[in-house]
Each structure stands twice: as C-alpha cells, then as structure tokens.
Amino acid sequence: MSIPLVDVRAQYAPLRSAILERFAGVLDSGHFILGPNVRDFEHEAAAYLGTSQTVGVANGTDAIALVLDTLGIGSGDEVICPAFTFYATVEPLLHRGAVPVFCDIDGLTLNLDTADVAARVTERTKAIIAVHLFGRPAPLDELPEGIPVIEDAAQAFGARLGDRRVGSIGRAATFSFFPTKNLFALGDGGLVATSDDELADTVRRLRFHGSRDKQTFELAGYNSRLDELQAAVLRLFLQELDGWNEARREAAARYGELGLGDLVELPEDEPGHVYHMYVVRSPERDRVLERLKAEAIGCASYYSRPLHLQPALAFLGHEPGSLPETERAAAENLALPLWAGIEAADQERVVDVISEVFGARPALSGRAGSAHAAS
Ligand SMILES: Cc1ncc(COP(=O)(O)O)c(C=O)c1O
Predict the structure, then answer these.
(1) Stretch 108-121: mean pLDDT, rounded?
(2) CA separation, residue 314 to residues 297, 306, 311, 317 (Å)
(3) Do 85 and 111 form a contact (C-beta atoms < 8 A)?
(4) Rounded mean pLDDT of 283-304?
(5) Where are the beta strands (DSSP E) in the chain?
(6) Domain 241-358 has CATH 3.40.30.10
C-alpha cells in the first residue's frame, strides 16, 4: 500500500461541505476579485499574526517581489539570503538586478547561520531575507541590527518564535498558500504581512496596477491579487490551522517515539516549529530514498542542488565547497511522509522500511503491542 509524502485531501476532506458552502456564497455574490472575503481574510490573518496589516496577493513569489519593490531594492543592491531554500526566495531579486549574497546555514536547524550573515554585510546590503525553512522559525533575534529583514514565511504559517508569530517580526513577511503549505488554498495565493502601514499601502497599490481607485495610476504595478474563491476557503482553513499544526507536531514526535532517531538524524524539536516538512538527515540518504520509493512511500530530497550552484546564479561565481553546511544538508536531507492526520500505522511502516535499509531495528518505545515491541 502506498503512502504519499503529503496528503492534502485527507486534511480538507472533513470540510468538504463547508468548502462548497463558501464557494456557493462567492458564486451567489457574483464578486470574484477584491471583495469581502479578501478584505475579511486580510483582517483575520493580521489578527492571527499580530500585525497591523496583511495584503492578499496572487502567490508567495509575487509577495516577495512586491515587498522588494516597496523597499526600493533594485540594481546592484545586495540582499543576504540562504542558498538552501526554494528558488522563489531569490528569483525576484534577479528580475530587479539585485544581487543575492548567499550565506551558509546552521547544520542543526537548516536556517540562516547568523554569524555568517554578519560577516557578509557591506555598505551595499539593503535587506536580509530570512526563510523559516520547513516550518522552523529562523533566528531573527540574532541577525545584525539596522538592516531590514524580510521574512520568507512561505513554509511557516502559524510558527512561533517565543510568543511572537513568525511573520510579525521582520519589516515585512511573505506567505505562500500553495496547496501543500501549512495554511493552503485550493490553488495559488499569497500574502504580505507587516505593521508598517506605509509599506502595506504601497503593496496594496502595487498589486493593482499602482492604483487606489482604478482611475489614477501612481506606480508601475502588477496584476497580483488573491481571489475571492481562495480567500473564502482560506478564512475557513485559518480556523483549522492551529489544530492542523498541533497534529503535525504530534506526528513529528511519533517518529521519535518509533525509534527513527536510532537510524537517521531527526530534526531537533522546538515549541514554535510547525513541521511544514519532516526532514531527517543521513549520509546514506540516497540508499534510504531509493528503498522508500521502491516501497511506494513518498519521500523527497529538498534543494539537492542548492541555489548558489544553480545555472541561473552561476554569474555569482560560487564553486562547490563554498557553502559547506548548505551542501552537506543538500546531500543528506530527506523529507518523510507527514501531514495533519497521518496514521500511526503509516509512520510505523516508514520506520520499518528504513530499518530494513540499515538491517537494524530501532528501540520501539512508541509501538506498544506491535509485533516488534518485545524484540
Ligand atoms: C521558501 C519559499 N519561498 C517562496 C515560495 C513561493 O511561493 P509560491 O509558490 O506561492 O509562489 C515558496 C513556495 O514553494 C517557498 O517554499
């Protein structure tokens, strides 16, 4: 029996009739673009995150692009960012002629190495993009002061750093609602969050052709809007988010209880981590990956060619070996099945298959009553 890496349908299946009701409401209203659902979702998301404003946009990539424009980041400006992230974190920099300055990551958290960030600051540094990778909050409090921080929180809706929500800490934050994210839409969607009202006002204009009123065009903007159907569903899903994130945390803890840590290196837990992905590490990653695939178990190695070694960024002149922790993580990381509501039996099967690769049975503390428990 196959096990997917992520089962989004299992998460929204219990909400089917509520989703259809929301869709019907939008159909009946005849209002599809920038209507009451987008407006209300923006207020509800801001209240949840603890920011004064949020602005719904078409996707997480545009959210980054619009924030960069609002901060006036353009040709020759340097922006410090990790190379162990999705390409969309830096792609909008390239469109603007801005220069991604890649720093290494902390091998334990896979987030920014803040000492390396500090070492790469120059007088041309205009911003730092901190990615909350795989749902783990990045160490924003340890970043150099005085440089605007953009939180790329695409993978971390609901994560917390102490008692603050991720997305409420930097100058601005960006979210994606791609259907596998912790808070997801049934299509594309994105959000900018900030407590800088002027910044929010500019993003709001940029998402609609640089205009407030469709008559006067003040800026060269975009057509980048969150639509009413997605906003209607996002309002419903936002109410479920804390429960979903708690279920993700429980599933992550279960892998530890099943003894997976005897076989591979587990992600270290911290209370604000929302496990967008459950990512383990092993020098034997490729062997484990092959075996899981052969057993029809969903798994993935993320960013196996990190950004500093991508063809589109070759102009920066990075050689292999220039970001050692990034490259080690790229070679060793492995995402295993996890979603809100994954069955314990599926997780047991994942651990069983991995144990066969190593020819070793882990200590099965969480598997009371299973056939292996006594061995
Ligand atoms: C870290 C990160 N940044 C940005 C994005 C871009 O989001 P979107 O796909 O909504 O444009 C993603 C989405 O996968 C992401 O994971």
Answers:
(1) 98
(2) 34, 12, 5, 6
(3) no
(4) 98
(5) 53-57, 78-82, 99-103, 125-131, 149-152, 160-161, 164-165, 172-176, 190-194, 278-281, 333-336
(6) no
Predicted local distance difference test score (pLDDT) of residue 370: 41
Atom of ligand 1 nearest to the CA of 62: 11
Question: Which ligand 1 atom is nearest residue 85's CA?
Answer: 1
pTM for the predicted model, two decimal places: 0.96
Alpha-carbon distance 89 to 82, whole Å? Answer: 9
The one-letter code for the residue type at 192 is: V
Is the Cβ atom of 230 under 6 angstroms away from ligand 1? no
CATH 3.40.640.10 fits 8-236, yes or no: yes
Look at residue 362 in the predicted model and tell me its pLDDT.
Answer: 72
By C-alpha distance, which of 182, 183, 200 is closest to 192? 200
For the chain, the domains span 8-236, 241-358
- Is the minimum distance from the CB of 176 to ligand 1 under 6 angstroms? yes
Asked if residue 131 has its Cβ within 6 Å of ligand 1, the reply is yes
Tokens found for residue 206:
């940029």
State in Å: Cα 89 to ligand 1 middle.
7
Q: Does 151 contact ligand 1 (Cβ within 6 A)?
A: no
pLDDT of 31: 97
